[in-house]
Amino acid sequence: MKEIKDLTLKELEEVLQGWKQKSFHARQIFSWIYQKGIKGFAQMSNLPSELRSRLEQNFSLFTLKLTRAFKSQDGTARSLLESKDGHLIEAVSIPTEKRVTGCISTQVGCKFACRFCASGLLGFKRHLGCGEMLDETLYLKNNSDRLTHLVFMGIGEPLDNYDNVIKAVRTINSPAGLNIGARRITISTCGIIPGIKRLAGEGLQIELSVSLHDADDKTRSRLMPINKIYPLKDLITACREYIKKTNRQITFEYILIKDINSGLQNALKLSKILKGLNCKINLIPCNIIKELKVEPPEKPEILLFRDYLLKSGINVTLRRPRGEDIEAACGQLRLRHVQK
Predict the structure, then answer these.
(1) Which of 22, 56, 111, 323 has the most CB atoms less than 10 A away?
(2) 132 catalytic per annotation
(3) Are residues 290 and 269 both part of a single domain?
């Protein structure tokens, strides 16, 4: 049975026209799903009963179910969701005083085996469908006071699941869907250059976040094997082209790992390769993941790294750790559940 959230508004209108139903019912269905948060087709009270019955017979409405949920002392909430075929994925909500950011997964597992990330420790299983990603988003929306921002930054590589991710983004952004502004939606990538180039041509005003983590090919390849396919020189060139074409700033994520990429020499190389780019750096002290033998630097080293970049004229933010008491790094909850 097809998941109804796999359909765009236009595709749903076409289905209804094929059923000899009025196309305006598609907007009513979207409103019930994305704005009113109903749990079943029977609740769509302004639809003809015949149409509700036909929807019930042809479509599923929710494909993910909650398995476990944890809430941190800082308000971060991490949920483990199970798909119809028994796979586990994670979705996270991160509240601050002015916003609530939802972080969703795009794949079951991950192919890319970044050294600092638990997402790939159980291997890659499959891509998530558009409807499953929208399910994650709706779960977060319906279980928080509000959902103001969304990041495709959970388990998996969004640009490796390009078509489904972009389809989900368009429904999340649509006034008929979740109506989250494009500039409040972020797609993160480990550096899939063909995906970055495709994204530049979409005409979307979304945010792009690129995981960098070092400015030296040898060290970055050690941390991120994808660098052997898309090395730094090519990646930075693609980012320059993206900025020029979209007139949008790029965020570079930089996870600080003790004794690997957190020294002043690393900061010097980073400032050189980013010189002249319309970008900002998001510094992130790594989570302690014992299976990967990584830990964050001491606070003085983190501040020295940040201050060097600031003095070099680079826009820098230092992200404070969130959800450490519930092991909120990508893939950790899924890993612990499977281990148990």
Answers:
(1) 323
(2) no
(3) yes
